[in-house]
Amino acid sequence: MKLKMIIGVLLCLILLYFSYFGLGSSTDKVVIATNADEEAISVIKKTLDQKGYKGEYIIQPYSTAELGGKMIAEGKNIEADIVTQSTYYLESAQDKNNMFVSIKNRNQPKTIDDFPNYVIPLLGNMGSLFVNTKALEKQGLPIPKSVKDLSKPEYINQISMPNIMDSSTGWLIIQSILGAYGQEEGRKILEKIIKNTGPHLESSGSGPLKKVESGEVAVGIGLRAQAVKSAQNGNPIQFVDPKEGNYSLVEAAAVVNKGGEKQQKAQEILQTIQQNSREELLKEYPVPLYEGEEVNEKQRPKYPRKWKKRLSVKLLEKHQDFFNDVKKQIENK
Q1: Per CATH, domain 125-248+305-332 is 3.30.830.10
Q2: SS3 (DSSP) at 57
Q3: Would you say the C-alpha torsion 83, 85, 91, 95 has a positive or negative sign?
Q4: What are the backbone angles phi and psi of residue 154, rounded to the nearest 5°?
Q5: In this predicted structure, what is the pLDDT of residue 107?
Q6: Could you report the average pLDDT of every consecutive run of 10 residues in the chain (333 residues)?
Q7: Distance of CA 194 to the CA centre of its chain
Q8: Is 242 in contact with 146 (CB distance < 8 Å)?
Q9: Stated pTM of the model
Q10: Which part of the chain has CATH 3.40.190.10?
Q11: DSSP secondary-structure letter at 111?
């Protein structure tokens, strides 16, 4: 009986240890926490396996908001050795927790925009509208040319968009509305778009495209590259560059400051990803981030835009409040 009790206590202690210190503290493998979608993760895995790191890393996928929350709350105690995440989350987490190390001996081309020395940009996500041409014809709807067009009453229940509370892709549409129309007019436009969205407000950035591909709705708001790829795969999808602009977000990677040989290995793995994955990632996410990069003409947006100030978690929260205020106003009517 005593032996069983001792074994039981030891098992409890082991479980408590793993739950408290996390996977990153209990494995020799480099843990990569990422908000990237399946296409980017596939490219990263392929690169690392080809370069001799197979079996030496673990990739842990999270939503953007979930991983961002972990970074802000846990700092250096996060289980990950490498984090790939939207730059505004990386920079906000660094400001609060000083959790990332500067990348030394960076053998990489010069970036188009300036980034902190602990950040290595990996890919760019650009927003757009997209339509199912067959569904539009069936519903007798015109192809929208702007985000504002989606506020017209004829698009009722025919729009799917990502929720900014769950998806960073949802932030791109809010930026385009506020950037073009400001708070007052933008509020009126967003209210009508949310009403037209009805039950099709999605928690993931890829959700709207799936609904548009199926024909459940005719119009979607999401990532331009995904719509282009869907059309190339033979779906009746046409992307639309809205006149308000194609806003974009950059996803990058950073090494958590934990010290020791594992941190050095994490840095080597990150540099391997950057040096050997970028060409393939640029095909999947055709947003130039480094000097000299080019994309083919079909992949170039008509109206590329950037938010007037540097993106941050505080700005995201401000825009989330704007979205929620409009949504509550609709619900209270």
Answers
A1: no
A2: strand
A3: negative
A4: -70, -15
A5: 65
A6: 46 41 62 92 97 97 91 96 96 96 76 93 95 96 97 98 91 96 97 97 92 97 91 94 95 96 95 94 91 84 90 94 95 83
A7: 22
A8: yes
A9: 0.82
A10: 28-124+249-299, 125-248+305-332
A11: B
CA distance 330 to 326: 6
Confidence at residue 9, expressed as pLDDT on a 0 to 100 scale: 44
φ and ψ of 153, to 5 deg? -65, -25
In words, the CATH class of domain 28-124+249-299 is alpha beta
pLDDT at 298: 72
At residue 121, the 3 state secondary structure works out as: strand
d(CA 35, CA 42): 13
Nearest to 168 by CA among 319, 45, 290: 319
- Owner of token pair 């990348």: 103
User: Which segments of the chain does DSSP mark as H helices, in order?
Assistant: 2-21, 38-50, 64-74, 87-97, 133-139, 169-197, 207-214, 224-232, 260-284, 313-331
Say what the pLDDT of residue 26 is.
Answer: 55
